[in-house]
Design a protein that fits this description.
The protein is of the alpha+beta class and 111 residues long. Helix content is 23%, strand content 40%. The chain starts with a strand and ends with a strand.
């Protein structure tokens, strides 16, 4: 589906296995799914770190912000930087299912 959302907050997370990620919490603001939550996660595992850095940089850029290199000092710093720049902004979040029923998200800022 495709949903009109507001980015509520960005959080640095880590699970019991040591996997690190940044979680973007969106609230759907229109339609029959209004007030539901969508979490878009960027994982910083050895396999995914390069892709996640590119995706997060592109996301910030699409919202009109350029992330400084220092934002990537830690995931907490990255989450704080994103909260200070893009939290509260509106976006269209498109949800699709890829290989192995893996859910993919595309986030497009609303002008």
């Amino acid at each position: 589906g495709e949903y009109s959302c507001v980015l509520e907050e960005v959080t640095a997370r880590k699970n019991d296995k040591g996997t690190n990620w940044v979680s973007l919490k969106f609230t759907i603001i229109e339609g029959d799914k209004a007030n539901r939550i969508i979490f878009v996660n960027y994982f910083f595992t050895e396999k995914m770190v390069e892709r996640s850095i590119k995706a997060v940089n592109k996301l910030a850029y699409d919202f009109g912000f350029e992330l400084p290199v220092e934002a990537f000092t830690s995931l907490e710093t990255l989450a704080e930087t994103l909260n200070n720049t893009i939290a509260g902004k509106q976006a269209i979040v498109k949800q699709s299912t890829g290989k192995n029923d893996f859910v993919n998200y595309t986030v497009t800022p609303v002008e």
